[in-house]
């Protein structure tokens, strides 16, 4: 017996619901940081605490990343799909916002790389 399309859809939506529940129930981030990668190169690392807007302009377009209250999201983007904006807020380690058309990745990473706290405000240009 083959797998029916309906079964796949059902399994898919169950999986999605489980994922949502998982994310909702997980504890909040522990004041980590984000790492922005553009076209495979490190653009910068930013603390998730505090508030910051990062505007990244490339030939392919513009992205505005907003950090506030321990969360990060794509506030503006002129990419054709707008998918990065629809990905919403990220605040837990391992989560990422990806803008494929602009080859831009925003990852939430842990704090351990800056245990002494010195590098939290360092911006690599
Ligand atoms: Zn995008």
Q: How would you characterize the largest beta sheet?
A: 4 strands, antiparallel
**Strand elements, count:** 7
CATH homologous superfamily designation: N-utilization substance G protein NusG, insert domain
Structural class given helices, strands, pairing? alpha+beta
What is the name of the CATH topology? mini-chromosome maintenance (MCM) complex, domain 2
Question: What share of residues is helical?
Answer: 10-25%
Rg for CA atoms: 17 Å
How many helices does DSSP assign?
A: 2
- Residue stretches low in confidence (pLDDT < 50, at least 5 long) are 114-125
User: What strand line-up does the widest sheet have?
Assistant: 2-1-7-6
Associated small molecules: zinc ion
Q: State the CATH class.
A: Mainly Beta
How many domains make up the 3D coordinates? Answer: 1
Order of helices and strands: HEEEEEHEE
């Amino acid at each position: 017996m083959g797998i029916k399309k309906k079964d796949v859809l059902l399994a898919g939506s169950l999986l999605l619901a489980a994922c949502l529940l998982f994310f909702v129930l997980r504890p909040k981030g522990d004041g980590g940081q984000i790492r922005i990668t553009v076209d495979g190169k490190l653009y910068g690392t930013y603390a998730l605490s505090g508030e910051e807007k990062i505007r990244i302009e490339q030939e392919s377009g513009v992205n505005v990343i907003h950090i506030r209250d321990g969360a990060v999201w794509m506030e503006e983007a002129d990419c054709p799909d707008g998918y990065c904006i629809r990905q919403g807020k990220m605040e837990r380690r391992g989560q990422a916002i990806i803008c494929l058309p602009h080859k831009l990745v925003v990852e939430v990473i842990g704090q351990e790389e800056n245990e002494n706290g010195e590098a939290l405000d360092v911006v690599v240009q």
